[in-house]
Description:
Layout: E1 13-22, E2 25-31, H1 35-41, E3 48-49, E4 56-57, E5 70-73, E6 76-80, E7 91-93, H2 120-123, H3 131-142, E8 158-170, H4 174-185, E9 190-193, H5 216-229, E10 233-236, E11 239-245, E12 249-255, E13 264-276, E14 280-283, E15 295-296, H6 298-306, E16 315-320, H7 323-335, E17 338-344, H8 352-360, E18 365-367, E19 369-376, E20 380-387, E21 393-397, E22 400-403, E23 406-409, H9 412-416, E24 420-423, E25 430-434, E26 439-441, H10 451-468, H11 474-485, E27 507-509, E28 514-515, H12 516-524, H13 530-537, H14 552-561, H15 582-586, H16 599-604, E29 608-612, E30 615-620, H17 628-636, E31 639-642, E32 647-652, H18 656-663, E33 676-682, E34 688-698, E35 701-706, H19 714-721, E36 730-733, E37 738-744, H20 748-752, E38 770-775, E39 779-786, E40 793-799, H21 803-814, E41 820-821, H22 824-833, H23 870-876, E42 884-890, E43 902-904, E44 908-918, E45 923-930, E46 940-944, E47 953-958, H24 968-971
Helix pairs in contact: 4-5, 4-10, 6-7, 7-8, 10-11
Amino acid sequence: MKRLEKPATIRVNPSKTVTFQYRKKSYTGVEGDTIATALFANGIRVFSRSLKYHRPRGLYSLEGESSNTYMTVDGVPNVCAEKTLLQDGMQVAPQNVKGSPELDALGFIDQMDWAMPAGFYYRTMHKPAKIWPIALKEVRKTAGLGKLAPDFHMPGRFDERFLNTDLCVIGGGPAGMNAALAAAENGLRVVLLEARPWLGGFYDYRPAVDSGNVPLFKRAAALAEQIRAAQNIRVFVHTAMIGAYNDHLITAFQTGAREDAFTRRYLEIRAGSVVAATGCIERPLLFENNERPGVMQIACAHRLAHTYGLLPGKTAVFSIGHDLGLEAAIDLFDAGLEIACVADIREDGQDPALLNALSERKIPFRSGWVATDTCGAKPIKGATIRTLEGGFQKSFDCDVLVASAGLTPVSGPLSLAHADLTYDSHTGFFLPAELPPGVHTGGRLLGLSHPDAIETSGRLAGLSAAADCGAVEKKARSAAQKALKDLPGPDRGCKLVMAPVKGRKTFICFDEDTTVKNIKQALQMGFDATELIKRFTAAGTGPGQSGIPGHNLPLFVGRHHGKLNELTRQTTVRAPLVPACLATFAGTNHDMSKRTPMHHAQLKDGGIMRRIGVWRRARYFSEDFSCKDEIENVRTNVGMFDATTLGKFRIFGPDALKVLQRVYVGDMARMADGKIKYSAMCNDDGCIIDDGVIVKKAENDYYFTTSTARAGATVEWIRYHARHDKWDFNLVNLTDAFGVINLAGPNARRVLEKVADADISNAAFPFAGYREFTVKNTIPVRAMRLGFVGELSYELHVPASYMQALWTILKQVGAEFGIKNFGVEAQNVLRMEKGHLIIGSESEQRTNLLDVGLGFLWCRDKPEAKTVGAVALKQAEDQPDRLKMVGFEMEGGGRPPREGSIIVDDRIRGHVCVARHSITLKKSIGLALVQAPLNKEGSRLGIFEDECQGQLIYGTAAGLPFYDPDGARMRA
């Protein structure tokens, strides 16, 4: 299709061609084309088939208001072709067709609409009940648009930005740009979002002139230049707003150009104020066969010519309801489009200058007429127009019908912001009766059409936002308000809802193939509320949401009830306003892990890092994943482990003890000076959620640790359970402020005594003791003597900035003893041999304190503390069938089972929590949660694994601990 001689408004470069594949055939477009305009230029008129009836669908708008042009692009389904820029090498395929879009084998379904009345999916296929399972499979096969392979990998690069700004302006048309400039002139930081790849809005493609005789497209270019020159305005083009939330949080996504480092970019903008200047879209005209290929909206036809250099067809009929339709008819006639007739819904009110221009060009004009039908389908071959009362009609041959009932504001952003929108009888718009604080509007959204009024309203919105931020005086805003009052106000809108037709094939929602006939059926069945009718008929529930039916549906229902007034309400709009792929929300999926101060030192020592929770930790220190050398070194010599990830907290104040008594099951009042106390936390169900040690440092001053997994939630947990008591205490999270080194093994004391400035003999620093001293007279250490791995060990807590120094010192003095690192996997085996549990490994959401053998920690003599979980623990004491933690050994020297494998007899009795081959004991052992009667020592446990072809492997329940049951080694 030959491009027009380059208009001044064109946005494509015809001298640069772009090659792409459509249905495995090669086509060319030009630089700046969208997929849809490139296909249109190549003579493609049928883009897809509709969801339910498989009717042919073509280019209707260029704003993505329906699924008409949804296609599969480079393997990605449901790509909106009219908003996706063409790129070299793209593979494009139609959707929802069996055959080709022009010849769809399922097109016969269109004649079976009688079998699919409103809500038929609710009322059929379930009686008799045995039919439903069969019908369900068939419904699922036909439901939805597009196909995605199970092994599909989303191509592209995804990014995200989180912004703070004084003002977020939604819409880069004349009103939005004026709002941004007004706010920026008053010192505000502004973020401007525009859905198209360029600024300008509806000025961008219009050669009409403003009051200063400047063409609107040139005025748009001048405003865009001012925007680019303003240093405190950040512009995001090709960016669609998708959500609005409390405190002016706006979400959006940006589509990247070829030169950008991203394919899609998710944006979260926290703004002080918001200006919605989103303009208008066109209200579809309701008539028979109003969605056939060749029927398109005014802006679609106008932009095809003025933005992409393409005439919409050879011969056109216009059926319109506002002056933009007359303007487009004149412009397109001058560009070479033959116009058979212009039918205007309105009886009067047209711009006399536009009527004169039509007359000068001898374009037939009929006032009070409207399109009622089309003939032909791929594309249309003719159109019928009729007087509004239906008395006269006339048919024309044409391949394009430009149809629009009028304008409707893009009010979705305001709806999401919880603005109160009511029907305005003058404009026919749903206008904001009340806006939330800090939200302002301007431009065509308010029904304005005069260029000066649009720009002034935008400037007023920007000044109002500046006033919210205290950056402008009331005087400046009052001047803008006065100027706006002196300019033409909102236009009188077209009131026609539907042409005089029966409505069998009059589509009110293109996405869901919902017709006016379906709406009438719902009304006849008693559905009188628009919101209920929407759900019953599915009108507006497709990807376009309120784009096509959002205005016509409430108007039609209001007309039916005879209540087209302020009681007429739009249906609910929900985020995302514009469909976005899940990869966009996922962003770059950076591994946002934390690192300990020893991360690089451990890497240097051969550490193999793995993501464990929020941390990246050294899991192994060799390619031997059994960790034989690491384990044997701890058992026979001395090893160093980085335990920095433990949660570390200080709690102090007059009521600190009361808090500890509330959240810990033990009696914290019995804490002895210089000793650690091991205890656990439970939830209200008595289920264990954390364990750790507590140290009393001074009167009303305590230091305690938590598991790594709970470090981030401990503060909220404690404050939640103390929220009603008005206790006086302070809680400080020291997790990242302190590092921890676990020095463990028979030679641990010999290493530490070389550097500690204190007596650490067994008598001076016994098991379960707590001491504070310095290392090399410099490094302050909080030392705890524990035995998690079953050997003599010291947990050394030091300020994070000293971790590297202490680690290096210990390595140096420990060299003569053969000190080595050990990682998380070695620690896991060591503690399992000792029978020590890890919360989350040997526990789950049903596991209480008693189940894991820690009932001895629970102090029943402190009811006044209202200990969290105590009531549930009392109730659970006499429940013999609960899961209990047991140890087990594999029979016959067998391999360890997989973690999570189920334990069975005649039914499932439990599962394996952890299992490894013990280097120390030379046999496979593990820990499991098992129900009675299998949780008794000596019980034979049948373990089921998928890969064993139904054959069980067997273990025997054993007593705990497996290693050093008397604890002599850790007390040595």
